[in-house]
Amino acid sequence: MRLFSEPHPVRLEWYEGEPRSLRVADRRWTVVEVVRRWRVDVEWWKGEGATSRDHLTLRTADGTLCEVFGDRRTGGWFLQRLLD
What we know:
Layout: E1 2-15, E2 18-24, E3 27-42, E4 51-60, E5 65-71, E6 77-83
Antiparallel strand pairs: 1-2, 1-6, 2-3, 3-4, 4-5, 5-6
């Protein structure tokens, strides 16, 4: 398992509301399964200072599990952890 202290920006490619591929720098993984989904809303009462994220655990074609999160305020996606 690799947990990144600073999440890596990624690009998710979607098809009909489901992630189909994950790009990190020059590497691309094909997503074959969304294993888990959850949302985190922290300190929502702070307005702009709140954290609101969608988290996904994705299984890729080569069997790698990736945990990514999307920042609901900015729309950016980030790789948080690899479970290989």
